[in-house]
Amino acid sequence: MFPTEPAAVNNGFGALLKNRGFMLLWIGQLVSQLADKVFFVLMIALLEVYPPPPGVAQNSMYSTLMVVFTIPAILFGSAGGIFVDRLPKKLIMVGSDIVRGLLTLCLPLLPREFVILLILAFAISSVTQFFAPAEQAAIPLLVKRENLLAANALFSSTMMGALIVGFAIGEPILSWAKSLMGETYGQELVVGGLYILSALIMQPIKFTEQENQKEQWSNAHPWAEFTESIRYLKKNRLVLNAMLQLTTLYCVFAALTVLTIQLAEEFGLKEKQFGFFLAAAGVGMVLGAGILGHWGENFHGKPLPLIGFLLIALVLGVFTFTHNLALALGLCAVLGIGAALIGVPMQTVIQQQTPPNMHGKVFGFQNHAVNIALSAPLAITGPLTDALGLRTVLTTMSVVVVVVGVWAWKNTRRVLQDVI
After folding, report:
1. Shared-domain flag, residues 315 and 393
2. Is the pTM above the cut of 0.85?
3. Contact assessment for residue 292 and residue 299, using Cβ atoms and an 8 Å cutoff
4. Is the confidence at residue 306, as pLDDT, over 80?
């Protein structure tokens, strides 16, 4: 399907297309991401046919399901990364997909009770916490150092593409599956099949993991490895700073997820059409990641994260004076480009600067920190908007983004100019 060895020099996406292992990982990740989004749509759809427990309203069922999806990320984010360093990456990724696929296929066989649905959703979300850090740790094992920027650009763009496409086509796919294969098991068969397909795609990948990585897992205690990752981040300011910038970026997007509901009303749209703004930002991220991936070598030494933060701050500030829907969607696309200028280089820096025996622990801690940090803007953005108004919140966010961007760049600009 693809040649075995990647190109010796960096020529953007061209080198990656010749790397058989990376292409299998990328396609498998794309299918798995799509399965995740369609599975979430499936869970929401099943709530309509699952009877609510006594005294529980329908809206409370939706909220409870979302909380159950989030809790494993907070509980097991770092633990997943520790096991990634203890076990082969392919075993974790392929095994995670198979387990999630089988759990999904078990849905039609289980009693239609809300508690059982929550338990299964919790289990699948927990398994995902092992897949995510293994995927990030696998990229440096398959891609040469000079091609990491293009690899992360491709992963970032397809991840956002799967987010947009998955939620958009989830309902039509499930409706088609129900009509073609029956209401009893049709939907679950499609979603479970996507997970199994992802596992089959990644099965031929061959990793060259260091033997000492495989030996250490029988000796070290998990808690000791967790504290080791914290000590490592304290010593390595570059990796810690990159992680803080990524966390800030995700927090901005979490707040925007809440704010876009009110923005939709401001522009005369229905509340449920808030996804237009997020989709426009996603298109911008795909565009920005594509530019970095193909012409990344032309940006060496440029302050990409600082430019990204300034673009995001500019968009947030201008938004308060915008009344045209087309202009607002264009601004969201610019915001997405700014997000790509932060996310892709910073993820690349973390991969380049982290030794192989720390990959899983660092990426697990990163996922853990991001998921915990996301809970704050999701919780406070709505009440703050009600109390202070949309314009005040957007202006405040713009100022905070500028301060964080300038502070982060001043702290690490000399090192980053050599790395990015």
Report:
1. yes
2. no
3. yes
4. yes
